[in-house]
Amino acid sequence: MRKWIAVAAVLVVVIAGAAFLLLGGDGDAPRPAAFRSEPTTAHYAPIATRAADPEPLTEAEMFPGGSVTSGQTTLASKETETITDCASVVWGSAEDAVTGCTQVLRARYASPDDRVSGQFLIFNLADSAAADRLVTALRDGGFVRPAPGTPAGFDASRSWAQARALGHYVTVSWVAPVGRASRVDLTYPQVAVDSLSLVIQRRLLR
Predict the structure, then answer these.
(1) 93 CB contacts (<8 Å, ≥6 apart)?
(2) DSSP 3-state of 37
(3) pLDDT, tens digit, for every residue of 10-34?
(4) Residue of 40, 20, 16, 35 lying closest to 175 (CA atoms)
(5) Is 20 helix (H, G, I), strand (E, B) or coil?
(6) 143 and 178, same domain (yes or no)
(7) How far apart are CA 68 and CA 70, in angstroms?
(8) Are residues 102 and 197 in the same domain?
(9) Are 191 and 77 contacting, i.e. CB atoms less than 8 angstroms apart?
(10) pLDDT the model gives residue 205
(11) 173 with 109, same domain?
(12) Do 89 and 48 belong to one domain?
């Protein structure tokens, strides 16, 4: 009898742990099912610090068009915003990792049939070390919050996300099917939203 009680207790812990990983210990703060992260590289040395790249980001710079496209997939922009309280858009250990962040630019996207929803964020941090710390926190102990206006059916349990440290910036792209009955391939939507990371390459030439 004691053996079965012990087994049941272990199962409760495992189930609770799985729920914590999916929801982040916070019912309104889901995590992606598939996540990829990249630290910064020497390629971004010219923008390794905010001191070397002091001009703030603008929405016109980061989101120059009303849509993003990859292959035959196009997602339309629904809303863009600039946020100065960086901690308000993340949860868990990511809250500590955004110390020194001066701004977050965020955009929300949707497919024409509303079967896919996505968001893109870029964090302006002090330096590349801080950027790498945030990427690690997003991978291990926290994540970004869904943007306001994200559909209620945003299915984080089948979502994909990617975080990149690019010098003193961190970009996050996150896409998901809308509605549990929706069967969609997220490959092109993810590439489309993540393509906004390429905009920051222009800062290397300043």
Answers:
(1) 137, 140, 141, 142
(2) strand
(3) 333 333 333 333 434 454 589 999 9
(4) 35
(5) helix
(6) yes
(7) 7
(8) yes
(9) no
(10) 87
(11) yes
(12) yes
Range of the domain at 66: 32-205
65 token code pair: 């068009």
Residue 57 is given by DSSP the state P
Q: What is the pLDDT of residue 4?
A: 39
Question: CA geometry: angle at 94 spanning 88 and 99, to 5°?
Answer: 75
Contact (CB, 8 A) for 106 and 196: no
Q: What gap in Å lies between CA 181 and CA 183, rounded to an integer?
A: 6
Nearest by Cα to 116 from 163, 183, 27, 43: 183
Same domain, 164 and 152: yes
Query: Do residues 26 and 86 share a domain?
Result: no
**123 and 168 co-located in one domain:** yes
Predicted local confidence at residue 183, as pLDDT: 83
Cα of 194 vs its chain's centroid, Å: 10
Which residue has 């250990």 as its token pair? 93
The CATH number of the domain holding residue 42 is 3.40.1000
Number of domains in the chain: 2
Q: How far apart are CA 150 and CA 49, in angstroms?
A: 32
- For residues 159-184, average pLDDT: 94
User: What 3 state SS string does 124-174 have?
Assistant: ECCEHHHHHHHHHHHHHCEEECCCCCCCCCECHHHCEEEEEEECCEEEEEE
